[in-house]
Backbone:
């Protein structure tokens, strides 16, 4: 059985979406600033839910969303549908990345992705990342040090913050670059 940190699962999904979106600006996490760049992506904090899969196994689903924001609805649909197409082509298998960002050799299984319009310039891609495991008292069905069957919102948010820490640094660098560019004008 392969074990991984919950943050690695999030980082793998974010990387896959970025690599297949055609958007090159750093993504936004948790909230969108008033002066956001388009086209861009926004990742709200994921949610976790669990259910019994068989008599002795369970399935935890990490529900993720990515909002694609663009100048018009068609451009937003183009980016979201591109990622949706890639996921379906790849059998909804997202290659997992290791701690250093290198390929780990295994995949995270996603549910069929859905694309829906939020407003005139924003389209949402939603998917679930599934993890199947047997809940045994001695193994406790753990992924890394987080029991995702019983993960609290605080644990999910902590893993999300860890997974997006590097991206947040590049977002701050982009804001600084834009501020300096505006000063030069």
Residues:
């Amino acid at each position: 059985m392969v074990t991984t940190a919950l943050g690695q699962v999030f980082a793998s999904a974010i990387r896959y979406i970025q690599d297949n979106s055609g958007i090159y600006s750093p993504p936004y996490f948790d909230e969108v600033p008033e002066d956001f760049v388009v086209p861009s992506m926004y990742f709200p904090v994921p949610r976790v839910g669990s259910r019994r899969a068989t008599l002795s196994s369970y399935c935890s689903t990490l529900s993720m969303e990515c909002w694609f924001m663009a100048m018009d609805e068609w451009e937003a649909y183009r980016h979201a549908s591109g990622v949706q197409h890639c996921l379906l082509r790849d059998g909804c298998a997202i290659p997992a990345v290791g701690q250093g960002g290198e390929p780990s050799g295994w995949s995270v299984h996603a549910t069929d992705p859905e694309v829906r319009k939020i407003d005139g310039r924003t389209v949402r891609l939603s998917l679930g990342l599934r993890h199947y495991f047997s809940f045994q008292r001695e193994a406790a069905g753990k992924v890394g040090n987080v029991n995702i069957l019983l993960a609290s919102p605080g644990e999910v948010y902590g893993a999300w913050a860890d997974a997006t820490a590097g991206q947040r640094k590049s977002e701050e660098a982009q804001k600084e670059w834009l501020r300096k560019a505006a000063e030069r004008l």
